[in-house]
Automatic annotation (TrEMBL):
High-level lineage: Eukaryota, Viridiplantae, Streptophyta, Embryophyta, Tracheophyta
The keyword Ribonucleoprotein belongs to this UniProt entry's keyword annotation: no
GO molecular-function terms, A-Z: nucleic acid binding; RNA-directed DNA polymerase activity; RNA-DNA hybrid ribonuclease activity
Record-linked InterPro entries: DNA/RNA_pol_sf, Rev_trsase/Diguanyl_cyclase, RNaseH-like_sf, RNaseH_domain, RNaseH_sf, RT_RNaseH
Keywords of the record: Endonuclease, Hydrolase, Nuclease, Nucleotidyltransferase, RNA-directed DNA polymerase, Transferase
Keyword Nuclease annotated: yes
Name of the protein in its database record: RNase H type-1 domain-containing protein
Start and end residues of each RNase H type-1 domain: 210-339
CDD domains per record: RNase_HI_like
Length: 407
């Protein structure tokens, strides 16, 4: 095809402004082809059809009778099914489609062919690993790779009696130092940091004015000495409110992370915050809230439901997973609350008697707040001694904690 012309033949196809069309010569060669009389003619016919495969609907399924026939010598393999398939292909080539560029916002319909649905779950997992190894080959060669999976891939790929494509994939993967570990939960920290930071958040609201957003950093800690949560709430003008809460009940690490978010949301609501950004280093909790992970455990599901219900009280909100190194302040507060005895509080250390999802919870109610508000007056000051946010003096969260502030 020469430059400057509107249409012409290129690589055997007709190329024009409309798109790529099949060459009339190729169509004529197929239509005028008589039924094959031997195996060689059948192979020649299949070669012609393969060249036009992009213009034949369900090409793989249509050619299946030909591949079955070619296994038999002579003309014995040519059956009525083969003849019917050839007639359908000829009819399709009489009005072939045009391969064109997609139009913006045009709907694209895709479907799996029959042969593409015949993979078992084990084969799909092995194929996904093989595809990842091909696309990320430099990384697989330079670093040890740990695969978290619920499939027994290691035992399958090392079986001596492997055949077919599984054998081929096992050979390709054998050159890499791949270690397989069972995936007990979806909390595996295996994704690259840049993916976590820059991936899209479809379930979050769009950010509006930067001057109206508060920032909440939370962390939970579960140790042999106890459990605690740490909160760091930052106002739009830069003031920080810190809080350490010791949990008066046994809690797992995931439960402590959820308690941290719930306590932080209570703190924000007590200050009439409407737009809130939440940062946590717990991938499980963040992905639960973003609806990317499913809460299979019943207790986690109750925590998740309470978090989502509380978030509905905000006008806008976002939640994001951050590195543990970027959450050191909240982590330190949680560690202090979990480590120190409850009789020696640090900052405003409050002992929460019951879980937030308990049916008869008395700690996270407005009534509890009213009962405890008479315990004292918290003066919020910065370094210079001036009061910050005077209107929030004496306010408490639903769990009964006064609102401390740090410079």
């Amino acid at each position: 095809m020469r430059l400057g012309v509107s249409a012409g033949k290129f690589l055997g196809f007709m190329v024009s402004q409309r798109g790529i069309e099949v060459s009339p010569d190729q169509v004529k060669a197929v239509i005028e082809t008589p039924p094959p009389r031997n195996k060689k003619e059948l192979q020649r016919l299949i070669g012609k059809l393969v060249a036009l495969g992009r213009f034949i609907a369900r090409f793989t399924d249509e050619l299946r009778p030909f591949f079955l026939a070619i296994r038999k010598a002579g003309t014995q393999g040519w059956t009525d099914n083969c003849q019917n398939a050839l007639e359908r292909i000829k009819h399709c080539l009489m009005h072939p489609p045009i391969l064109s560029s997609p139009i913006p916002k045009e709907k694209l319909y895709m479907a799996l062919a029959d042969v593409e649905t015949r993979y078992s779950k084990m084969e799909l997992t092995a194929l996904a690993l093989r595809s990842a190894a091909q696309k990320l080959r430099p990384y697989f060669q330079a670093h040890p790779v740990i695969v978290l999976t619920d499939q027994p891939l290691r035992s399958i790929l090392h079986k001596p009696d492997l055949t077919g494509r599984m054998l081929q994939w096992a050979i390709e993967l054998s050159e890499f130092g791949i270690e397989f570990q069972p995936r007990l939960s979806k909390k595996g920290q295996v994704m690259a940091d840049f993916v976590l930071e820059y991936s899209r958040r479809p379930n979050q609201h769009h950010e509006s004015s930067e001057q109206e957003w508060w920032t909440l950093r939370v962390d939970g800690a579960s140790r042999s000495s106890g459990s605690g949560v740490g909160l760091l709430l930052q106002s739009p003008t830069g003031e920080h409110l810190e809080q350490a809460i010791r949990l008066g009940f046994s809690a797992s690490n995931n439960e402590a992370e959820y308690e941290a978010i719930l306590s932080g949301l209570d703190l924000a609501l007590a200050l009439s915050v409407s737009k809130l950004r939440i940062y946590s280093d717990s991938q499980l909790v963040v992905r639960h809230v973003q609806k990317e992970y499913e809460a299979k455990d019943s207790r986690m599901a109750r925590y998740l439901a309470k978090v989502r219900s509380t978030l509905q009280q905000f006008t806008e909100w976002t939640i994001e997973k951050i590195k543990r190194a970027d959450n050191r302040h909240a982590d330190a507060l949680a560690g202090i609350a979990a480590s120190l005895p409850s009789k020696k509080p640090f900052y405003c250390l409050h002992v929460q008697a019951n879980p937030s999802v308990a049916e008869n919870s008395t700690c996270n109610t407005i009534e509890a707040t009213k009962r405890m508000i008479k315990n004292g007056r918290m003066i919020l000051q910065n370094i210079s001694g001036q009061a910050l946010y005077p209107k929030i003096l004496n306010k408490r969260t639903k769990s009964g904690c006064k609102l401390p502030v740090s410079p």
